[in-house]
User: What shape does this take?
Amino acid sequence: MTGDGAVLALSGVSKTFRQGRRTLAQRVRRAPDDRREVCAVDGVDLRVGAGEILGLVGPNGAGKSTTVRMMATLLEPTRGTVEVCGVDAVAEPGRARRHLGVVIGGERSVYWKLTGRENLEYFAALYHLPPRVIGARIDQVLRDTDLLDRAGDYAERYSTGMRQRLSLARALLQEPAVLLLDEPTSGLDPRSAAQLRERIARLREDGRSVLITTHNMEEADRLCDRIAVIDRGRVVRLGAPAELKRLVEADQVARVRLRVGRSTADGELVSAVGAFATVADKRADGADVDLVLHLPPGTDLLPRLVEVAQRHDAVVHKVDIEPVTLQDVFLSVTGPGAERAG
Ligand SMILES: Nc1ncnc2c1ncn2[C@@H]1O[C@H](COP(=O)(O)OP(=O)(O)OP(=O)(O)O)[C@@H](O)[C@H]1O
Ligand SMILES: [Mg+2]
Assistant: This one.
């Protein structure tokens, strides 16, 4: 553990990738390497305390998975240090891994031709668990992930959700102090996702720490003690969900759909709306213009909206007024995903 009680600590962590392809012919010819260098993670500092759930959210390509892979010792940082329970994870990845349980999407983390239980027996041996604890531990993690009754079935016959749970069971085998979960609920039905969230919340009660990435803002809000918003490889905001919501300078958020006429100039319509509310997001689809508006306290939205719509040959089709959500924070502090921004 570090001086401030953090079980996971990243300091100034960066990762640069070379993108593009260098062919064998180019290598043989010793042609100059013209691959583009891309900084996927750019000086990230993060600390996760004991018993804390930290969420990592951000647009596609922001660098979340790359950060998780560096924490998991699967990828070496270009710069910076990663410490897991006081162990330097770059210098001693093997020792650091003993404190880690990792669930990474897309990783072939279960063997399809083995049963659920055989998978766990295999990994228990790989992790050097003492033979006398293996049987009881496997039963425990199967029970924790609701897989006990299907433990004798081949993993290839599992559904996506069951495979995801088996990955979690595997990650729990070593009773790790820190769990790293990269989008653990993606692909799960709403009930399974809720059950997994409950399980994750229970881990915190046992004093485990969890770092989780997700695109589900409601999930991040409900589950996480603190959330780091990451954009283009940098942590752009960090705080408890309530603190982050206070960053949006509005009491309420309105989601508005305006149906525009042929003579409407979208730009003028939106700037007229901008006179009494902050336009946080705008999407046009045919005749529909969808706006997310941040409303300063006391805004009398409806009459003003109707008046502006009438003036610009548009009708107000739908208005939902809600308290500020984490999604509003996300939209206001991040840019478009790296893939879209190019
Ligand atoms: N092995 C690699 N080689 C080259 N570039 C990579 C590699 N892995 C990731 N990248 C690039 O690094 C950037 C960050 O990717 P990363 O997977 O960390 O994003 P992410 O935040 O997890 O996105 P998503 O929400 O889509 O999962 C992207 O531009 C990606 O193309
Ligand atoms: Mg990712």
In short: The two ends are 40 Å apart (CA to CA). The domain at 252-323 is CATH 3.30.70.600 (Alpha-Beta Plaits). Confidence is low (pLDDT under 50) at residues 338-342. Residues 190-205 form the longest helix (16 residues).
